Amino acid sequence: MIVSLVGLPGSGKSTVGRQLARRLQLPFVDSDHVIEERLGCSIREYFEREGEARFRDVEESVIDELTERHQGVLSTGGGAVLRAANREHLRSRGKVIYLKSSPDELYRRLRHDTNRPLLQVDEALTTALHARGFTIAVETNGTVAPPPGLDWICVSPKNQAEVVVTKGNELKLVYPQLGVDPARFEGLAFEHFFLQPMDGPQRADNTAKAIEYCQQHPQWRLGVQSHKIIGIR
Predict the structure, then answer these.
(1) pLDDT in tens, 61-85
(2) CATH code, domain with 9
(3) Owning domain of residue 67
(4) What SS3 class is residue 80?
């Protein structure tokens, strides 16, 4: 027997799924976790790099496999039911439970979430926020054109991804990145250019390299993550 949970992002599919599996004494699996294990990276990173269509192909393959072989409780991604093949596999191979949450409850749960790729800013949102007196700042990898109405745009390019956002307030480049030359971005129309040392075991060495590059190329300034320097992760 397989019981599949579907619902909007933030509706509690993973949380409820674990509790249900424990109550029924059945195995639990989260399709998003299986996808990330298969991809070797986070869904957000893959989504940004390859796009939604490629991600949905992977998701469809995983759901097909899990509904065929898994016996227990399955938690699906919030957008899994957008594809007819997924709906058919879920419905024909087990029981499906829809978790319904109110808009207010979803907002409370997701308002600080930065990992879900489909929680995107659009013009309707920026208009509503401005009407309530908010200032809107976003950080993006620059592969998707931003909506109108943003007050501050920070672009942080990743690897060889094509950057289509060529103007804004701030360009922040993690340095050094294999195959990414800061000179590639120097002609873009940004007010500020920052080099942020690559984190990890070589952070001190990377910081020294970033400082040296900034000294040799005054257009760039050093950007540091102060919370990491003082030990907050």
Answers:
(1) 999 999 999 899 999 988 889 899 9
(2) 3.40.50.300
(3) 2-108
(4) helix
